[in-house]
Amino acid sequence: MKEQSKIPTSKVQRAAKFVKTGAKVGGNYVKHYAKRVVNPSLSKEELHADNARDIYNSLSELKGSALKVAQMMSMDKNMLPTAYQDKFSMAQYSAPPLSFPLVVKTFQQYFKKSPEKIFDSFTKNAMNAASIGQVHLATKEGKKLAVKIQYPGVADSVKSDLKLVRPFAVRLMNLNEKDLDHYMEEVETKLLEETDYHLEVERSIEISEACRHIENLRFPKYYPELSASRVITMDWLDGLVLKEFIQTNPDQETRNRVGQALWDFYDFQIHELRQVHADPHPGNFIIDKNGVLGIIDFGCVKVIPDEFYEPYFRLIRRDMLEADSELMDTFKQLRFIYEDDTPEDQIYFSEVIRDMMGILGQPFHQQEFDFGDDAYFQKIFEMGEVISESKKFRESEKARGARDGLYINRTYFGLYSILNELKAKVVTTKPKWASKVAV
Questions:
Q1: What is the greatest pairwise CA distance in the chain?
Q2: Cβ-based burial of 215 (10 A; exposed 0-12, middle 13-18, buried ≥19)
Q3: Residue 182 is inside which H or E element, if any?
Q4: Which of 41, 46, 91, 333 sits CB 3.0–4.6 Å from 311 for a disulfide?
Q5: Within this chain, do residues 185 and 249 fall inside the same structural domain, yes or no?
Q6: What is the rounded average pLDDT for all residues in the chain?
Q7: Is 313 found in the same domain as 389?
Q8: Under 8 Å CB-to-CB from 394, ≥6 apart: which residues?
Q9: C-alpha dihedral over 157, 162, 168, 173, to 10 degrees?
Q10: Are 172 and 270 found together in one domain?
Q11: Using the 8-state DSSP alphabet, how is residue 98 labeled?
């Protein structure tokens, strides 16, 4: 893969890149509509492919929060046409890496020496590269280590990048701009946290220690003395990422074991720790030859406040979806419905949200759930289409849903999607908290 020798870091440089990309996208639309004059039945597939290529190429050169937003969008198969999903998902672990001189420069800045002076060996080429940083393989005192280096300028450009990526997000996702405004502060906060590698090391150690009792999980050891605000050093975990693991055609027992470990990991974080690894994309999980699941990258962690946790998981209960008066109060707590909504709007939004939560809550309504059931996921996608195409949702003067729900919903959607790819059957109810959300 071609390496980058520099990244645009100033606001002017990055804005110019967005303007240039916008011009390319505009040109793609002009070409598409010119072709439709000759061929009125022409589909938008070629247009989507051209736009996806041009937008991804631009964002991958910029790196940082703009590319991270693209990665987040690729996780929702209901949000974007396939061409965008395929391109944007590359941001998970195969973005163009930085050249070695820039890596050395980062080490000189934070350690006053090059990586070869710190480690016994250090690969000059990145082993993988994502939206915010890239990983190199190193050794020290007989240990294999993963060294993650943050791209230059990422932390300083979060706020300005989100403003620049906004028009693309609104157009691609057909979003209500008020919804985007409502959630942008939450996205900005999380992206800024992801650039704080001291915080990531602290959370990584805390959560991995708390979850070590869970069966079939493993975590790397982290080395604060070999880490800095833009560098993290941890044990290297050998194994396969999800796509590679599935290509080995594992048996159902192994799929279930990996899926159960993943479910138990998220279950414990959400209901016991009340904070959760909120970036469940396939690149953050490594599966070894014994079917043991490795967890990496705690950059995005969502702390779940009590005032959100209690009403949200109340909605998961099957009986709650039939308790009209209590249900309406819960919808208001979670800002799906507002006191000054018209009676007509209250009925409309409550019915849509009730249907949505009924579908999303199905895994909690039985002892074991088959995530390989594609018919279930079709229901989720259809529900997403209902909401995205709803004139009432698009034109609502108020954002629908509490900000805290953004990353919790994203976490569950990512978790469900991975379990679906695994075709795993998972025991979904747990004695400690089953009475809160289950059957």
A1: 69
A2: exposed
A3: helix 177-194
A4: 333
A5: no
A6: 83
A7: yes
A8: 174, 176
A9: 140
A10: no
A11: B
